[in-house]
Amino acid sequence: MRYRTRTSRSVAVLAAVTALAAGLLAGCAEDKEEPGGSSGGGGGGEGRTTLTIGVFGAFGLQEAGLYKEYERLHPDIKIKQNSVQRNENYWPALLTHLSSGSGLSDIQAVEVGNIAELTTTHSAKLMDLGKVNGVAKGDFLDWKWQQGTTKDGKTIGLGTDIGPTGICYRKDLFEKAGLPSDREEVGKLWAGDWKKYLAAGKRYQAKAPKDTSFVDGATGVMAAVHASGTEKFYDKNGELIYKDSPAVKEGWDLAAEFAESGLTAKLQQFQPSWDQAISNGSFATLTCPPWMLGYIKDKAGDKGEDTWDVAASPRPGNWGGSFLTVPEAGKNKEEAAKLAAWLTEPKQLAKLFDERASFPSADAAYGLPEVKDAKNPYFGNAPVGQIFSKAAEGVPVQPIGPKDGIISQYLADTGMLGVDQKGTAPDKAWDKAVKTIDNALDQ
């Protein structure tokens, strides 16, 4: 497998990781200032139809060679990608173009943190891809299919990748702290219970190698726990419940205990200090989806090879993923829908994983060799295809609301970060975060 960094999947960190991906893969995607740029029904030359695809960052479809393969299979089609480097610029422009019905690509990619806004408020402007020939609901993970589907059953987004979580850990640091380093034994330390992860952290910290901590920061712990619950910020009816959500409370309380027990390196993810800590081996564990492995390899470098490994998470969650949508306003929407369906078939998603480490949304791909037999030599030849396939199948069906990103960001940056870095009392930090969120949501 060739591991490359994909984009991050929360508002708080998206820009940093997208920028990294674009920097590592400069020149792979055509950068535009707008997410659209309709083909206008032709322009491919020699009678070919040009289909445009709007994406953010180094999305991977083009880099994996999938466009060229489709063009070879369909000589009458030419594919042109319009890429905006940052989703924070791509997304508002896409909403503007959807509202006006102009300036759109034939296919528009959508990040998982934004999909709920489309399913709840803009579904009429997008095709029902669940009815396209060749699209099989049964090929996809149920929770992923539901994310791109409206309450009345219209599927506006076909999943490309997901981010099922494991725990990346430093084998050498575990051994020095007297903990097992074999990935199966490590997984047993905290199997099924985040409190066991805390207990393992306390064991580690009792004999921790000098200047190391068990985990990078409390905000990462909180996000991982939140992602593993059946409900987070919204309930299945779309009602805002974050103040009373059991998963949110569990994540907040556990992360605060990590901070107050001195188990964290007090770091904020995707900041220069965090990158440096990965390089220096300053912390022993990190919640990681498949795309994070490439990030760790990039920051830890040659000296980090075979010091890291991957174990199962206490409870799997999802951190990341994207969808392909087809605007109704497109002049080539029928051909675009066929292309979107083909790009998200299990065979193509398996190739995307093999080339780009973007884990397939379709569990029908998990038995294919590119996924089933995938190993990562940098992480001790970890069988990442099997590890993350099992995690993906255990991710709960969790409702996503239109303001998930805002809530997640403020709970972390305004709330838990203060507990971790400044020693703010958890109750006081919670009240501050809630006030900020309510102001942002006009509550």
Low-confidence stretches: 1-33
Strand order of the largest sheet: 2-1-3-9-4-10
Tell me the strand percentage band: 5-15%
Helix content: 40-55%
Major pleated sheet: 6 strands, mixed
Shape, principal axes of CA atoms: globular
CATH architecture of the largest domain: 3-Layer(aba) Sandwich
CATH class identity of the largest domain: Alpha Beta
Mean pLDDT: 90
Counted beta strands: 10
Query: Which fold name is given in CATH as the topology of the largest domain?
Result: D-Maltodextrin-Binding Protein, domain 2
Radius of gyration, in Å, reads 21 Å
Our count of domains comes out at: 2
Through-space gap between termini: 47 Å
The tally of helices reads 18
Q: What does this entry look like structurally?
A:
The protein has two domains: 14-163 and 319-394, Periplasmic binding protein-like II (D-Maltodextrin-Binding Protein, domain 2), CATH 3.40.190.10; 166-288 and 403-440, Periplasmic binding protein-like II (D-Maltodextrin-Binding Protein, domain 2, 3-Layer(aba) Sandwich), CATH 3.40.190. The termini are far apart. It has helices spanning 14-24, 66-73, 87-100, 112-121, 142-147, 171-176, 183-190, 194-206, 218-227, 246-260, 272-280, 290-300, 333-343, 346-356, 369-372, 384-394, 404-422, 426-440, and strands spanning 49-56, 77-84, 107-111, 158-164, 166-170, 213-215, 283-288, 308-312, 318-325, 359-360. The strands form two sheets. A six-stranded mixed sheet has the order 2-1-3-9-4-10, with helices on both faces. The protein has 443 residues and is an alpha/beta fold. Helices cover 43% and strands 13% of the residues.
